[in-house]
């Protein structure tokens, strides 16, 4: 039974109408490949000077890039490999099974593919994802190895994300227990992505350009590559580093930091030959948390996570795209 989502059937009209378009999203050639700023977290334990330097370097990367990579992050390789193996196993199941309404006992929208509201290739992602809100994890069969691996990973990722968020807060004078008070392991989510080979890599994206709706994201990616970020108006490719996790600032940290840290638009380009896997851990507050700039005058109105999400849902319905933080500018 076929594992691939029926991209061709579902998006036939869009694919046909775009085949002759002159303006195609150009996604493959000629991108500069850059190493992201590399933060060695072992420096936090060397001594007060090295620690301060490491924290400042992280803050600088969040200001200038909105992205950095971390090594010596204390998430064991063995666990990352196991997560990837479980991820492969789950995506290799037949499409009919993955799209069942109670697949893995998770909520209906956990398994996603393409973009149900796509109106053109510009907003159609050639990928499938399992987006697991960690408060739902207890619904999964407890003897399922996928569940236990996700639980193990989520615990480590939550600990790491909280530490990173707290270090980044030190540069801004945000109170030390802000994240402990507003985030919990069950308020975050894990999105496992699979990018099948795409027959039209120059016409569409693996994931369309977007910013993340969270404080920060920790991404574990394989060595295929394809993640790109917008830097000084140009798309640049992130060179995969087998020892590193990628961290990017999300919309909520941009709002909280009053625009000091940047939630940068990123995307994944499609690949004709090779499938790609990644797992993104979204560090989020509880729905009720109100996010307010840490300095004045504020660039943004204060908003709760719930309001932000509802606005995104409205915008996606109306336009096919998330509008994001600019909706909340003062
Ligand atoms: O696959 C990647 O490298 C990034 C995925 C991503 O941006 C996301 O899931 O929000
Ligand atoms: Fe993302």
Automatic annotation (TrEMBL):
Keywords: Coiled coil, Iron, Metal-binding, Oxidoreductase. GO terms for molecular function: metal ion binding; oxidoreductase activity. InterPro entries: DIOX_N (IPR026992), IPNS-like_FE2OG_OXY (IPR044861), IPNS-like_sf (IPR027443), Iron_ascorbate_oxido_reductase (IPR050231), Oxoglu/Fe-dep_dioxygenase_dom (IPR005123). The keyword Oxidoreductase applies. SUPFAM superfamilies: Clavaminate synthase-like. Residues 186-285 form the Fe2OG dioxygenase domain. The keyword Metal-binding applies. Residues 143-170 form a coiled coil. Belongs to the iron/ascorbate-dependent oxidoreductase family. PANTHER family: 2-OXOGLUTARATE (2OG) AND FE(II)-DEPENDENT OXYGENASE SUPERFAMILY PROTEIN-RELATED. This is Fe2OG dioxygenase domain-containing protein. It comes from Gossypium darwinii (Darwin's cotton).
């Amino acid at each position: 039974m076929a594992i691939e989502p029926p991209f061709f059937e579902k998006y036939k009209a869009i694919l046909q109408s775009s085949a002759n378009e002159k303006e195609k999203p150009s996604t493959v050639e000629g991108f500069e490949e850059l190493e992201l700023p590399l933060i060695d977290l072992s420096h936090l334990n060397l001594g007060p000077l090295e620690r301060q330097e490491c924290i400042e370097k992280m803050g600088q990367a969040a200001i200038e890039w909105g992205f950095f990579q971390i090594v010596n992050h204390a998430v064991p390789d063995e666990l990352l490999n196991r997560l990837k193996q479980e991820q492969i196993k789950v995506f290799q199941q037949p499409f009919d099974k993955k799209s069942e309404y109670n697949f893995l006992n998770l909520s209906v929208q956990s398994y996603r593919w393409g973009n149900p509201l796509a109106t053109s290739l510009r907003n159609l992602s050639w990928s499938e994802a399992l987006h697991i809100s960690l408060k739902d994890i207890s619904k999964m069969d407890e003897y399922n190895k996928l569940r236990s691996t996700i639980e193990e990973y989520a615990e480590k990722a939550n600990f790491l994300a909280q530490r990173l968020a707290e270090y980044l807060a030190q540069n801004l004078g945000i109170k030390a227990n802000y994240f402990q008070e507003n985030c919990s392991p069950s308020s975050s989510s894990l999105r496992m992505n699979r990018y099948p080979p795409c027959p039209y890599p120059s016409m569409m994206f693996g994931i369309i350009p977007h910013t993340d709706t969270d404080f920060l994201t920790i991404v574990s990616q394989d060595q295929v590559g394809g993640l790109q970020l917008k830097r000084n108006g140009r798309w640049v490719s992130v060179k995969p580093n087998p020892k590193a996790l990628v961290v990017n600032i999300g919309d909520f940290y941009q709002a909280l930091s009053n625009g000091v840290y940047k939630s940068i638009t990123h995307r994944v380009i499609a690949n004709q030959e090779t499938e790609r896997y990644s797992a993104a851990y979204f560090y989020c507050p509880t729905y009720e948390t109100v996010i307010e700039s840490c300095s004045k005058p504020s660039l943004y109105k204060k908003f709760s996570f719930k309001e932000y999400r509802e606005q995104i849902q409205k915008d996606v319905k109306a336009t096919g795209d998330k509008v994001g933080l600019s909706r909340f500018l003062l």
